[in-house]
C-alpha cells in the first residue's frame, strides 16, 4: 500500500508520545474554570469518582439491556427512579436513558405524533406548538419526522404567552413544548397553565427540563421560588433531563421520562423482518455507552442530597456575585432577573458581542445571545471561585471595547 499519510503513522505511537501531543493540541482550549458556557460537570472529588466509574464500564454497551448486563439495568433503573422522584413522579413513571437532550426530545416528539395518529386522523402535518424560546431540538425532531413547529411570541419577561399558545392550537396540533427553564433566557414557562391547557385539548405536554430538572428541586429546597414543573401536574405527559448538566455526569448522558408505560410505548420501534429476529428499541440510537451511565450513577450516589444542595448553594452564591459585579461595571446591565442558573447581560452603549471577543482574548468564554443581543452565562458550582477573576477580565474587556469605539468615532 506504500507509505500512509502523516495522519496515520507507519508504526504505532506509545502513550509517552501521545500524551504530550494531546496536551499540545489542548493548549488553545478554554479551561473549565474560565468557561462560562458549554461546560457543565462535577468538580473536586466527584470528578475523580466519575472518572473511576467511567473506566470500570469503559467497554460496555447498554444495547443488550439488563439481560446482558444486569449491572447496567440496575444502574439505569436507579437513575430513572431518582429523576422521577425529583420531578414528582410516582411508581408508574417510566424512562429511557439517551446520549443527550436532543434525542430525549426527539423521542417524545415521535411519541406525541404516533399517539395522536392512533387516536384520530389529522387533516395535515402533525404540529408542535411552543414558545419562541423553545429549544431547537423540537424543530430538528419535526424535520426528521415530517412535522411542523409553530413558534409563538413570548410575553414580556421572556415567558410563554398563554393566549398566543392557545390561539396557535389547531386541528393538527399534537404537542405543546415547555421549558423549565429555557436555555436562552433561563426563564420558566408557566407550566401549570400549560398543563391545564394540554389537558383541555387532549394534547401531549413535554417539559424540557434538560437544564433545570436536576437543579430546580434543590433550589426550591433552599427557599428559592421555583414553580411546579413535573408530574405533580396532571397535564404533564413527559419530561427530559440532562445528566451531563446539573446531574454532574459526563457527556453524553440524558434521559426522558413518561407519565406511564402507555405513553412510553409510542416512542418505541419494534421490528422483526430481518434474519436477526426481533429488534425493539425505546431509543433512537442502538449502541449506548454504558460508561457514561455508570459514571452519572456514581456521581449521583457520591453527592447524595447534601452534595446536590451544596452545589445548588454554590451556584446561588456565584449568581449573586456575578449579578452584583456586572451591575457595578458602567455600561452593562442584566437583561432579566435569573430564575435558576442562567444569567444574561448586555449594553445600550456598545456591542456586547465585541465584549465576548475581548473576553476570549483574555482566555474567558461566554455564549452570545441573539434576541435580545447580549451575553449568556450558564453558572456552575466552580464559578463561585472563578467569579472574581471573570469580573476583572470583564471590566478590562468593557474598557477595551469602549476605547475602541471612542477611537472609531474620532
Task: Explain how this protein is built.
The chain is an alpha/beta fold and 410 residues long. The chain has 2 domains: 50-299, 3-Layer(aba) Sandwich (Aspartate Aminotransferase, domain 2); 305-401, Aspartate Aminotransferase, domain 1 (Alpha-Beta Complex), CATH 3.90.1150.10. 42% of the residues lie in helices and 15% in strands. The protein has 12 helices and 15 strands. The chain has helices at 15-25, 45-56, 70-86, 101-119, 137-145, 162-168, 191-201, 216-221, 261-264, 290-327, 352-361, 383-409, and strands at residues 94-98, 127-131, 148-152, 154-155, 159-160, 173-179, 204-208, 238-242, 254-258, 269-271, 279-281, 333-334, 342-346, 367-369, 374-378. The chain has a 7-stranded mixed beta sheet with strand order 1-9-8-7-6-2-3, sandwiched between helices. Strands 12-13-15-14 form a 4-stranded antiparallel beta sheet. A two-stranded antiparallel ribbon has the order 4-5. A hairpin with a 3-residue loop joins strand 4 (154-155) and strand 5. Helix 2 (45-56) runs antiparallel to helix 10. The longest helix has 38 residues, at 290-327. It is globular, with a radius of gyration of 23 Å. The mean pLDDT is 92.
Question: What is this entry, summarized?
Answer:
42% of the residues lie in helices and 15% in strands. It has 410 residues and is of the alpha/beta class.
